[in-house]
Amino acid sequence: MAGGWDGIEEFVCVARAGSFTGGARLFNASVTHMSRAVARLEARLDAQLFNRTTRSVYLTDTGTAFLENCQRLIESRDEAINLVASQDEPSGLLRLTCSYALGEKFIAPLVRRFAQANPQLRVVLDLDNDVVDIAGRGYDLAVRTGHLEDSRLIATRVAQRELATVASRDYLSHRGRPRTIADLAGHDCLLGSTPQWHFREGQTYRPEGRWKCNSGAAVLEACLAGMGVCQLPVFYLGDHVAAGRLEVLLPDQRSEDEPIWAVYPARRHLSPKVSHLVALLRAELQPALDAAGV
């Protein structure tokens, strides 16, 4: 009889990816292997886990219930193995990606220290404001913020960041201060890579303006130059607010802190190079962010 785990990880990967092709890429195996492994598992269970058409693959009701149990089994197994594997030294190539500002200011210094402490490790850190397919492009880990949509990935919350809406004193002296979120419609807004600004209790505002850039530093410079109102993570703003160059607006409407995640493909999260780095981020990223805040 086949082993108890035969086909389970292949099934979970196909379910997460939504296709046998995507599951094969995630599992690092051929599509033929994935198809046969899932078929053998269905035969052992005497149940159909997927509905298959020429264009799509989706879970049956039985498959949905079975997936939840399989994910818990895999997580429990991996945690047990990690207790043993965690004593190994990080080594080999570690590839990770992060947004520019968070990467340059916080992640790169932490990862540099991590590499210095582990001489058997080689690191490639790619900074990119676009959300890349980390499984498809061979990354071991990504650091991301906000809502996560890729269900194929494992996510660990490592920190949180605070957002603030600000403008320069010069701008406010000419245009006045917005007192409500609705008042922002009467102001020049400086747009970054996020299409919506976030406020308390889930309120959002979609800004419009004549300046947009996917660089937070460039948005900050425009704000300091008196071009308008912007919303940025507070680590951009601390020194400028303290020096009086910028003023925090709508303080009673500030949104809840935005989570920061370490995300990684399921089959890689047992590697010491990943698990040790995630532990470092959980321990040291938040204090670094807090020190740079408003």
Question: Would you write up a description of this structure?
Answer:
The protein has about 290 residues and is an alpha/beta fold. It is built from nine helices and 14 strands. It has a five-stranded mixed sheet with strand order 4-3-5-14-6, covered by helices on one side. The longest helix has 25 residues. About 35% of the residues are buried.
In short:
40% of the residues lie in helices and 22% in strands. By secondary structure, it is α/β, with parallel strands linked by helices. Strand 1 and strand 2 form a beta hairpin.
List the helices and strands and how they pair.
Layout: H1 8-17, H2 20-27, H3 31-45, E1 50-52, E2 57-59, H4 61-85, E3 92-98, H5 100-117, E4 121-127, E5 141-145, E6 153-161, E7 163-168, H6 169-175, E8 190-191, E9 197-198, E10 204-205, E11 211-212, H7 216-224, E12 230-233, H8 238-242, E13 246-249, E14 258-265, H9 272-291
Parallel strand pairs: 3-4, 3-5, 8-11
Antiparallel strand pairs: 1-2, 5-14, 6-14, 7-12, 7-13, 9-10
Helix pairs in contact: 1-2, 1-3, 1-4, 2-3, 5-9
